[in-house]
Design goal:
Helix content: 10-25%
Largest sheet: 6 strands, mixed, barrel
Order of helices and strands: EEHEEEHEEEHEH
Radius of gyration: 17 Å
Distance between the termini: 16 Å
Strand order of the largest sheet: 1-2-8-5-7-6
Structural class: alpha+beta
Number of strands: 9
Number of helices: 4
Length: 174
């Protein structure tokens, strides 16, 4: 009953514009596979991430209104990011604001979205993700409970020989 899957890369870093900076929750997504996410983030200005995730050749950034106000940026403005990679190196990347959303939930105040390939480049994690969302045809709670054991058996850590011993694979319903 799987309708689609989509990868997500979650990380933390610093967003900067001009002389201002803010801690940021950085989410790398596949925008063309996230229609529900786009609908759940009401636009204040601009647009959601484009399928390619690049505006005039620059990586697009879709960010929360409180962060936009804090950094004093609007649609078309440049942002820079600095993160620590999983190996401990420091990486940076520049992007352009494509849209600003007003979620009205404090845990989104420092959130920003990039395309998955852009986030993978930023965090030096090519081809990797921190989560995979699985959308079921029957999206109710009972269907999720029924699907969970089967999905868990498919993602059993023993089936992934490249996982380090400290890595965890977990199946959660949402």
């Amino acid at each position: 009953g799987v309708v689609r899957t989509t990868a997500l890369l979650y990380g933390r870093g610093t967003a900067m514009a001009g002389g201002r900076s803010s801690m940021a929750t950085i989410l790398g997504i596949e925008p063309e596979r996230e229609p529900e996410l786009a609908a759940a983030h009401p636009l204040e200005a601009g647009t959601f991430l484009s399928p390619g995730g690049a505006l005039s050749g620059e990586p697009e950034v879709f960010l929360a209104s409180p962060m936009a106000r804090k950094l004093r940026v609007g649609v078309g403005d440049a942002l820079s990011f600095v993160v620590q990679t999983p190996e401990g190196a420091v990486n940076s990347l520049d992007g352009v604001v494509c849209g600003i959303f007003e979620k009205g939930a404090p845990w989104y105040d420092n959130a920003l979205y990039l395309s998955l390939p852009t986030a993978q480049q930023l965090f030096a994690w090519p081809g990797d993700a921190t989560s995979v969302k699985i959308m079921l045809r029957d999206g109710n709670e009972a269907a999720a409970r029924r699907a969970r054991p089967r999905i868990a058996s498919l993602v059993d850590a023993t089936r992934f020989p490249n996982l380090a011993s400290h890595d965890r694979v977990r199946v959660e319903t949402f």
